[in-house]
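Subject: sequence -> structure tokens, single chain

Hey, anyone have a minute? Need the predicted structure for the following. Not urgent.
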Amino acid sequence: LSRNISDKELVPASQMLKGYNITTLYQPFYMKETIELMQRIQPEIKNIAFISDNRYISLCAQKEVEQAMADYYPSLKLDILTTTRLSTEQLLDTISRYNKETGILYYSWFSKQVQENNYLNDNIQRIVYGFAHNPEVIISRYPTLARRLFILYSK
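Reply:
Had a minute. Here:
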């Protein structure tokens, strides 16, 4: 993970919670299956563009994408598009230049808005599909017990 956290410093929740009466839920990302689905929908894919921000959960998702790509799809090129590397305008410009050889995997794009109150904003999810020329796969983080996968088709 970035932010200078090594794998050795990460403690599994099961180990950290020993001795406590706590129930946890694991919500897998299913990155391997998601990329497989993307390839079935868009067989000409040679690249995967992963869109995310720099929050901890997004870094975990990014790590899972990188691992799935290395283990199961080494011939595909991975483009990491994050809020630390691109502005929202640069993201939309980048997406608009992709063709059918690039599958777009959207996780999140929270950015800090500077107004009276500071809050996280993920409105970009609503307009990304308008800039894409091919299907976009979104891994949803809505408040449900299970993750859902949505596929949006651009015009």
